[in-house]
Amino acid sequence: MHRIALAAAALPTALLFGATAWADPITPQSDTPCAPDLSGVMTWPQNDALPLVCADAPGGRQWQRVTTPQPPNDRWLSTGPAVTLHGEGQRNPNVESGNWTATPQDPAGRCRAEQRVVVSPGVLGTPTVSESAPGQPLSFQVPPRLFTIILSGNCLWAHG
């Protein structure tokens, strides 16, 4: 009986009492369902040539490929892998300058933004990195001459 008590004491608390686990986020794919609260949100899966937008489709709301040039979008979703977007320092920007807030989609998640701005023609500044505390929103500024921004973490990014 003494050995059983010692073995039980050695088990992690989570196994004995249960724990809340968060599954890895699902990376959006073209023509798959998206949540109603993501209507109009864009994402850009790694290694894809075109971004996706959550939009109405026959049979419900789905992630759909964006095949025509779009104005900058005010909401983006990153699901963990980095999403690289263009700012107003390039043609056809994906994001506008101004105030942005990233909200982690799980309680322990972190949001990270790495920005590079155009300093002068052909010259980029050093990367500026902003990162949230676990489970906390991240507020930051996107400058008008943003060249690229790399968004990472399972986060919803919103302008305004």
Outline the structure in words.
- There is one protein chain.
- The protein has 160 residues and is mainly beta.
- The protein has one domain.
- Helices cover 9% and strands 42% of the residues.
- Strands 4, 5, 6, 7, 8, 9 and 10 form a seven-stranded antiparallel β-sheet that branches.
- Strand 6 and strand 7 form a beta hairpin.
- It is globular, with a radius of gyration of 20 Å.
- 23% of the residues are buried.
- The N terminus is likely disordered.
Oligomer: single chain
SSE succession: HHEEEEEEEEEE
Structural class: mainly beta
Please tally the helical runs, counting DSSP H or I stretches of 4 or more residues. 2
Q: Which ranges are low-confidence, i.e. pLDDT below 50, for 5 or more consecutive residues?
A: 1-22
Biggest beta sheet summary: 7 strands, antiparallel
Beta strand count: 10
Shape: globular
